[in-house]
Amino acid sequence: MSEKVKVTNLVKTFGTNEVLKGINLTVQDNEVVVIIGPSGSGKSTLLRTLNKLEEPTSGSIVIDNTDIANKNVNMNTIRENIGMVFQHFNLFNNLTVGENIMLAPVELKKETKAEASKQAKQLLDTVGLKEKFSARVQSLSGGQQQRVAIARALAMNPDIMLFDEPTSALDPEMVGDVLEVMKDLAKKGMTMIVVTHEMGFAKEVADRVVFVDDGQILEQGTPDQIFGHPKNERLRDFLNKIL
Ligand code: ADP
Ligand code: MG
């Protein structure tokens, strides 16, 4: 096992609001870590600092032995290695499905259009949307759009994938297909950090579950420890409310 991500004493403030209050988190290669916790506890901010969408106020974030808090590190290189999937898909509605997936490989990795489109078609196949290459984004359901967003993130061949409540904006009947794609990815050995309220997914897929409350990690452990034998009072309260 090797360390993929090591977060040490990570603090993030917005103005006077201290949102992350000294987070320590290590993620191993091939590990699936699920982050749970109440709304407003800092889960999105934590993921966003890992991807440099937010600058840490203090602390260090080492990814593949590179401290990304270091100002000299090239942000594009970091983002090429870390895919991110958001709650609201964030696809380009004026482009086709295929164009969305090809955009970053062509612009950032300088792939030829032929290479990028071949890969886009393969990725669409793996997310169950083989026939949608030329479709307009708006013609797809939310669940289909989210699977396109996953394919788009994978097109950069990242070795870490971050998911921020990827199924929270979906109608219930669409959730399963998206979770299936994520399960497949986990099976293939992708290192994943997933913020979700889907406790079934956490129980089945997570190697480790991390409970964040008020900008701090209050407890972490295997799904069995966290769901079966929670120790922290606030974790127990949280689980009582959502299960
Ligand atoms: P969660 O994802 O757990 O719901 P967030 O990380 O989105 O929590 O938010 C944690 C806190 O940080 C909230 O109080 C939120 O208002 C604040 N926050 C998040 N992003 C910003 C921002 N860009 N500017 C100011 N405050 C922010
Ligand atoms: Mg959030």
UniProtKB/TrEMBL annotation:
UniProt-listed PANTHER family: AMINO ACID IMPORT ATP-BINDING PROTEIN, ARGININE TRANSPORT ATP-BINDING PROTEIN ARTM
CDD domains to which the protein is assigned, alphabetical: ABC_HisP_GlnQ
InterPro entries according to UniProt: AAA+_ATPase (IPR003593), ABC_ATPase_HisP-typ (IPR030679), ABC_transporter-like_ATP-bd (IPR003439), ABC_transporter-like_CS (IPR017871), MetN_ABC_transporter-like (IPR050086), P-loop_NTPase (IPR027417)
Lineage: Bacteria, Bacillati, Bacillota, Bacilli, Lactobacillales
Name used for this protein in its record: ABC superfamily ATP binding cassette transporter, ABC protein
UniProt keyword terms in alphabetical order: ATP-binding, Nucleotide-binding, Transport
One matching Pfam family: ABC_tran
Molecular function terms, GO-annotated: ABC-type amino acid transporter activity; ATP binding; ATP hydrolysis activity
Organism expressing this protein natively: Lentilactobacillus farraginis DSM 18382 = JCM 14108
Domain ABC transporter: 5-239
PROSITE patterns: ABC_TRANSPORTER_1 (PS00211), ABC_TRANSPORTER_2 (PS50893)
